[in-house]
Amino acid sequence: MSTDLYAKENMQNLAQLKELAPEQLKAFNEFNASVFKDGALSKKEKEIIAVAITHVTQCPYCIDAHTKAAKKAGATLEELAEAVFVTAAVEAGGTVTHSTHVHNAKNKEASDVLYARTNLKNLGQLGKFAPDGFKGYQAFSAAATKAGKLSTKFKEIISVAVANATQCPYCIDVHTKNADRLGVTSEELAEAIMVASAVRAGGTYAHMANMIQSFQD
Prior knowledge:
mainly alpha; AhpD-like; 11 helices
């Protein structure tokens, strides 16, 4: 087997899971299949969301598999590029919003509630102490989430999925409210979140190929 940790041929090792953990493999495959069938969101939309989430998990196997699945479902490369830029913007936003804890750590009178919504008022500190960078972030976030090949509504659906994948409560709150204002349904959000869940599980599943290879070396 290749010494390249991410050689595609490593994926052949996953066939061994039929003997190593058959019950768990069956349940995972059924979970994955149920998530990606057409529902409130189409299979194409779900695969676009999946590509966005694979860039959160940074699993090259998953990026490869879901990019090909998205293409097969009718997604264009422009749509996928826009979706991944949404991921980048939400990841940047998660870092920015968590900076509020830096301010709280220096403030003896700060709330003991780590994830209080009131913490977000401290974002002005970034604008004060790093004005150029903060303006750059705001411009990038606006560019990434405006309508293009993908609608603003669908980008907010992606954002909610990414926010749940990154487990940023501030991002979940902000983007869920944005999505609601744009008319996104609870069913659409739930299905997008389940895609994020399946892709995160899939990243772990795919990396078992490396575990098996390492065990056999």
